[in-house]
Amino acid sequence: MDVRLGSQVIPKIGSFKYLVLVIQVDGEIKEDITHFIGVGWIKWRLASGVLCDKKVPSILKGTFYRVVVRPAMLYGVECWPVKNSHIQKMKVAEMRMLRWMCGHTRMDKIRNEDIQEKVGVTPIEDKIREARLRWFGHVLRRSPDAPVRRCERLDFAASLLHRGRGKVCIHTTLPRPAPVGFY
Question: Of 87, 95, 119, 129, whose CB has the highest number of CB atoms within 10 Å?
């Protein structure tokens, strides 16, 4: 069935941008991830004069990165249904930025943890987890009759009859213990 506006046929598309988010037909967030990584690179390039300056201390560069670049990359992350592949893409982008800030390449064979420690930046997966836990705490403090909490009482027994691995839900991803040294 074609959608028409007057005599013109409106084409079907796989995704569209609404406000800041890219909404895809299949419910994935791959385009969102690449968009926000691109936004992070734009912010990084705007500040590259400071971030790549050898006279600026690494800790100051890390602080600037944490205040300007990372929030642009992690905007709205508490609501993303993230997969390990999405987190990996974010980690790769972050480490490329941090290595460039320190003046190193992958050929120097310096471990990611050493670079993060030098700059004073925690891993991005910990920040994603922290943001999601913060949002989850806000949801749990709402009354049980709030619309956002009503979904906890839904019964999905009929949908569990499919073969294969079950869908990942918020209750299976969040209650895992936090990593050691996570504040």
Answer: 119
Is residue 180 in some structural domain?
no
Q: Which residues contact 37 (CB under 8 A, 6 or more apart)?
A: 73, 89, 90, 93
Q: How many Cβ atoms sit within 10 Å of the Cβ of residue 37? A: 20
The answer to whether residue 183 is domain-embedded is no
Average pLDDT, integer, range 56-71:
95
Q: In Å, how far are 19, 91, 119, 122, 125 from 99, measured between CA atoms?
A: 32, 12, 10, 14, 17
Q: What is the pLDDT of residues 124-183, one digit of tens each?
A: 999 999 999 999 889 889 998 898 888 777 776 666 666 777 666 666 666 555 554 443
Q: Is the pLDDT of residue 122 over 70?
A: yes
Range of the structural domain that residue 47 is part of = 3-173
Question: Does the residue 179 lie in any domain?
Answer: no
The answer, yes or no, to whether residue 36 has pLDDT greater than 60, is: yes
Q: Is the pTM of this model over 0.85?
A: no
Question: CB of 21 within 8 A of CB of 30?
Answer: no
For the chain, first and last CA: distance in Å? Answer: 53
Classified as helix, coil or strand, 31 is helix
